[in-house]
Design goal:
2 domains, two-stranded antiparallel sheet, about 60% helix, mainly alpha, about 120 residues
Length: about 120
């Protein structure tokens, strides 16, 4: 029984340390975005392609991002596609097509939850 109490107390202390570090990481990420925004505004206002500082260069680059479609948009596009190929439409078929691309959780994995009593 003494082994389990050691593991439980270690689990609690690790959990507290993780929460503390996550909070500091959250603050650092927020500050990083603010600084990044300031640098981008500076580059846009001065029309410089970039800046160099202590052997590191900072430059603006456009990045393609993927935007998730809303379910209503997916349903409309599926209906349009079926109509384009003259396939009879049914709500059941459209919903099945939309749901084929969603991730499903098939496995259940045992986890430890900590709570107070």
């Amino acid at each position: 029984m003494s082994d389990i109490t050691g593991y439980v107390s270690e689990y609690k202390s690790i959990n507290l340390e993780l929460k503390r570090r996550q909070e500091s990481i959250r603050k650092l990420k927020k500050r990083k975005k603010e600084v990044e925004s300031y640098i981008l505004n500076y580059l846009q206002s001065t029309k410089y392609p970039g800046v160099k500082y202590q052997g590191t260069s900072f430059y603006k680059q456009l990045k393609n991002t993927k935007i998730s479609k809303k379910k209503n948009e997916k349903i409309k596009e599926c209906a349009d596609l079926l109509a384009q190929y003259n396939i009879p439409q049914s709500n059941d078929l459209i919903n099945k097509l939309v749901n084929t691309f969603t991730k499903k959780k098939d496995k259940q994995k045992p986890i430890i939850k900590m709570g107070t009593y």
